[in-house]
Records
---
Amino acid sequence: MPFDQSFEIKPALVTARTPSVVSLLASGLLCIAAAAAAPRVPLQYGCAICGGILLFLAVFAKWSERGAQVANARLRETARRSSAHDVGVGFVSDGAGVVQFSNAAAMDRFGDSQGRSLANVFELMLANPGGVLSQVIAQASQTGAQTEDIVTRAGHFRLRLLIMSAQCQMWWLDDASQGGL
């Protein structure tokens, strides 16, 4: 089965079809304005009820969006704390593969990689980092974790992935050529 070589995370279908908070809010306000201008009482009630429901949905969507952001921030902080003092190379990335944190060993080996994609971080080490990373992610989608042994001219490495959520991934790179495995 060929893997996508672009290392591009595709958005979930549910969030792609969900209306934005602004559109829900605008639609709710428009329904309430229509209720005020409607000539008949049943039409006023109908528009007011629809407007109220849309305003409630806008508030609920914003509240749940904020809750998801807080939960993802807590999860990334937990991942950062658990890999901060690891002696091996470790990264915490978001769902798009952008490095949010790299531990001291990763900083020594790859320099400051925060804000860069993992494919860019590994470009000097691997011939096709996007392909390798997308393959590891595809294989980890079933169980939430994956290990891949990589042999290059520079040595033998083990790349490990733990998917903590859609927006938090922990990556480790172990150097097997130094007897680390």
Note: Confidence is low (pLDDT under 50) at residues 1-9.
---
Amino acid sequence: MLGLASKLVTGFINLTMLMFSSYQGNNVSFSDVFVYSDHQAIILRTELISAFDNDFEAIFRSGKPIIIYFDLQVREEKVSTETHSFAHIVLYHPLRSHYQISVGASENQIIVESYKEMIDLITSVTFHYNHFGKSDLYHFTLTSYLGKIRLDTMDREFDLMMLWNFKQPSISFSYKVEEHED
């Protein structure tokens, strides 16, 4: 029990230091997008770059759910825009010293012990857009942002976007489905 208390106090002290220091936020971006199509879906793959550098480990170890949101806007030729929203959710369990992760729309929970493994999972973004042959040219815009966490000990909310300099990383790209891909 003493180990848990020590971990929680250390996490709180680190978080407090982060909040009251002259923190330099991360300059977050997306890597180049890898896009391909199978018979009915356009598959998009990218990664968040520099999203969780610096003091994020203390935030993740706070024991609060940390949510990384994604919005994918899709515009088809001559069709209105639609938005698909999904999220990666991380929860650290101090008693077990592991991270519980939900990635995207999947209902599967992934458990990892290392911070690096957790970061690798949550910075990876894959989305399957079911196009069903509606159009041949698609325009995409992917944006990410962080939620807020409630710090009970300080009785206030903390906007995690501060750690990204209040800037939402975004990337836009187009993809043309060739006839032989359908």
Note: The two ends are 58 Å apart (CA to CA).
---
Amino acid sequence: MRLSLVPSLVVAAVLAVPAITSAQDVAPTAGSWGAEASAVGDVSLLRFRSSTSAWLVGFSGFYNRRDEDDSATPFEATTTVAAVRLGWRGYRAPESRTRPFTTLAALVGYDDTAFGATWQFGGQFEYGAAYFFTRHVSLGASFDLRAVFGVGEREQPFDDEIDVMHVTLSTGLRFLGAVYF
């Protein structure tokens, strides 16, 4: 009989936590830090200026090496992508657990592929929302729009390298998890 009481107490405690914490302010305050990660490999560090705004610095990277020796034409390719973003994030509804946010950031990146290397410069606009379970933990999602200008060199199969410039617009959906301290 005693063993069945323990799970009931645990369930009751878990159900009571949201009711207890809902009366408290769940927004990070001025001077708080946040660490955020997305399902696509981006990581960001946030420094809150107030409960409604934060400075943001982020990094994303990707590395892939493909080596096929067993085919009729051996193939080897390496892809390296790295980007840094620096910006500002504004949160709305600091008294609510669900907090919409907007991010504006500058982007600098470097791509090195089998076709050549490119430096990229641009900006990002992000709109999303985060659900704050407590003042220290949130999960959310965002839609982002990125515009970048790239400049670099591209290797040609039968000729010298050529200079390239390109403009890229991209969109994405990101799923985010964050901790605040």
Note: The mean pLDDT is 85.
---
Amino acid sequence: MQKRLRSVFIGLSVLILSPLALGQRTNVRLTVLLSSWDKQNDSAQFSLQAFDTAGTSSTVNGTCSDEGKCKIDLPLDHVYRLELAGTGHVAKHMILDLNGPTLKDRKWGYRMRITVKLMPRIKNVDYSICERPLGLSHFDHKDNQFVWDERYSAELEPYYEAMQNQYLDAKAKQQETPTP
């Protein structure tokens, strides 16, 4: 009799608590606006992919419009390498650590909006800084939101500035060189 009552209690608990569990958001809705750093080069086709860094073969593909507005839903409780690419442009990536939100915190779900400009690939420019993540994101329990590591981003600024200067110099030299 006790086993039967326990089974009924567990069954009722599952039925009562299921709507609460189902109401929890388990994804982050990410909107990424991609464009070309060079305003004269706006014909690129952009793409967005997320790779689970845990070594699983889990890949999530985003959808991108012709204007470069990309959307992707990423399940929480994973760390992703988010790859941003465009035809004829240097790819960039960022690391999104989506671990951290408790079930209570997930009530309303999470949304992130990111704007990234990709640089067209031309000769005589050192793009090696793009091998490092553009940004690092993690969950802040105090604010109940995902935040960016601002110190890390600030450390990269001089390298990106040097790359941009190299790009402008190389582009100017290309325009000076007459084509046969």
Note: Confidence is low (pLDDT under 50) at residues 4-23.
